[in-house]
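Chain particulars:
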Amino acid sequence: MDITERLYDLIEAYHLDRCSERFATYRKAVNVLKELAEGFPNGGKVLLIGRSQIDIDQVRMDCDKLADAKSLIVPVNQGKALDDFDGSLYDVVMIASLSRRLELANALSLRHVCFVDLYDCFQKAGLYLEHDYYQLFGGTYLNVNTYTETDNYGFFDAQRELFYTFKAYQRAEDFGSRSFYLQRVIFICLFIKDISSAKKYLSLYCEQKLNAFAEYEHALSALNQLLEEIRIAMQARRSQSIWMFWLDALEYGDDQNMPFLQSISKEGITFENAYTVTPYTQSTLRTLFFGKKVGDEKAYAIERIDEDSSILYRALKKRGVACWYYGLYWMMFPKENNLSVCWHRQYPHTARFWNAISKMLTEDRPVFLLLHELTGSHWPYLCGDPEELAECFYPDPYHGFASRNQQSRQKKSSLRILDEQLAFYTSLLPANDIKIYMSDHGETPLGRFHTVFKIAGGGVPKMEIPGLFTYLDFYKLVEHLLDSDFSAIPQLERAYVEVQDFPYYNGYAIGQYLKQKSIAHLLGYRGIVTSNMVYIKNDFGKEEYWQTGPASIEELNRELSLCREYVGQSSIDVEHEEKFQYSKYIYRIFRRYYARNRAYENRKRAVIQELFSDEKAVYGIRTGSWAAMHLILELPFELRKRIAYIIDQTDDCICRNLTCKIIRPEEISEFHIDKIIIPVRRKRDYFQKELADLSAEVIELTSYLAEHSVKCTGDFFQPEFTADDLDVDFPFEEVRC
């Protein structure tokens, strides 16, 4: 059963595309493409050539026969890419781009290359396109990284289109406009396979009795019938599979307002203390598949995930389980394991979920399927509910980027909608299949290692794992799940787990950070996590540690001593390993800095600790910012206990993982606070004015440090680099900065 064709047939049968003239054209174009590919030699070498990777990837995605076709990108003004091109190496050369296709065709002709022009084929079939065949929603999009307009379809943001279309529906005053805009909302939801939202808006359309609502009632009934057929077909699969929903950057605790994920704790396995080793997406992927630390065990140097390199892969193959990956790092997998024919950051995860089910309906083998969800749980939180968010969908072309409060609201809304989508797609899966819901890292500095990890289905018992679980043992967990050896799972708990990161190595990024003199976060580090604390020590010996469990000061200090004993030293040779050829310049800067400033840094720490020496005082810190976090981390556990409150506009601040209570500025008078510290330079005048009428003593940190002979030209936690420190001959030209 081709469920995508069935869904598209439904859309056309009930005229749900009446608000989109391009949808029917898109379907016709795909049929022409497929018919064209059928005429290509079986097993022949096909090259897709075009102006952009998106053009080529869309052709690969829309035509299975071309999924493995080679590609050649020839951007404008880069005709040299054709100079050494030999078309005779291929059975078929096809131009896949509309833009500049005639110039490209001429360039190929001058080089005596035989080729097929896809858009010529469209014209012969009666499709006279003035837009890319796959462009259903205009031709320009918002680049959320550079905040500029772009024609790159990779930045098409369906959720943004959905949000503002629904806002137009809410504003519309006449019957026709309300009908049109809600029709378009429904179409967008169906096209991106956000079926749970589509059903909601179909019901709303019928309740409002908008234009042709009877046809929409029949469409809703037909959609429910299709979904029931999909459930029945999925339940009929005999082999047990594992579905792993990878929820990017979902920090432990952030699922508290996600009812579906919370419900898993009532019926399945919940790991309360699951930790990644290195808190980045690709690093976590390596840890899961290799069972190795990215730094110490050189997992960063392994380029392919296959039977030779991956202990998880071998465990799956030993049990006859296929491995499929649908995610950002598809290029690391062999093509037979890769479902990511077309991938870009903002490609809707609901479409990926739908495509995975479609693929599974053609497969009889048991499968371990990893589905990477990227932008619903990760900034910019693209699943926000237009009924819930009263303002804009950030970043917005006319309102800029979100404030912390606005971003927090958009995040909570996005997570709620994502939760509904997970619940819907899980409902289509066989009860006998195992479902893993996990994250790769958190989003805050203090919560970046602590992840969400839950398992349901497949007969797994209700079980809470309170101890420490490291992703290094993930392959063992999968083995126990496939062997139904559930009693062995608690044995995966460890007394402590290791965390670490290697030095930042991307030359271009290092060059940019160097220009900003913001490089402290580029250093490698090692750390230990216990049941009560996290301890981090960077490659120059700077320590950071914070409490995570209900331990006494004495217990924390004992564990701190053990962490210092166990943490060890980095095995990476920054000066000589090729991967770190640009990292070494950062390390040279810090060697110079600490050689000159070790006494200054020690003096600054001593003055800060003296600020909190009043054992009878109750302290508060204004803002839960980076500065507040670094201020608290400069203190030993004994002094941290004196800080009772973080005063911030949102409880979703950076300091939320510390033990201090977070209160709003308007609530200060309700609490007894003797001293309030302002740790930031920026807005310090504003905060001093805000706090002027309080009975508490207000201390501005930069001035306090200066009064004690510690002068800071920037934020107190930033190194005071000099020109001599930074003069390390970094090769800016080489990395094209």
Notes: The chain has 23 helices and 23 strands.
